[in-house]
Amino acid sequence: MRDHGIPDAWPLGIADRVHFGDLDALQHVNNAVYLKWLENIRIQYLMDWGITSYSPDDPRIVLRSVSLEYRKEMLLNEDYILTARTTEFRTTSFTQEYGIYSGDLRVTGTAVIVMLEPDGSGKRTLPAALRQRFIEVDGAVAA
């Protein structure tokens, strides 16, 4: 990722290209598509970090909130890299930050994610090993 001008602080990145189906009537990426892209990297992150494999015994992962800031439009066939990291965590939730780069930073985003028990009966405490990984790999802090 560093070869593409992405800062070292991002521990995970996924490369792709803008496809025709991503465009809206104005011929740039539809705002809703960015949310889909961030979901793609969020799922990859959750699986890579061992948070869930989406088996029945795994915790439920709930997206509590998400926000985006659009900085510059993206057009057909542009190559881009999605990035993700956890910036802070609490007892049962964590905040992720996202970046979408195509030569420069095009979109930023944040999401708050809550862990629930597999049956949805209540919140699940983040395991100590996961908290440590957030700190060591992502540079996250306890909130």
From TrEMBL:
CDD domains: 4HBT
Keywords attached to this entry: Hydrolase
Transmembrane segments: none
Name of a matching Pfam family: 4HBT_2
Keyword presence, Nucleotide-binding: no
Keyword Nucleotidyltransferase in annotation: no
GO molecular function: fatty acyl-CoA hydrolase activity
InterPro entries xref list: 4-hydroxybenzoyl-CoA_TE, HotDog_dom_sf
Domain of life: Bacteria
Similarity-based family: Belongs to the 4-hydroxybenzoyl-CoA thioesterase family.
Name of the protein this chain belongs to: Acyl-CoA thioester hydrolase
Annotated organism of origin: Donghicola tyrosinivorans
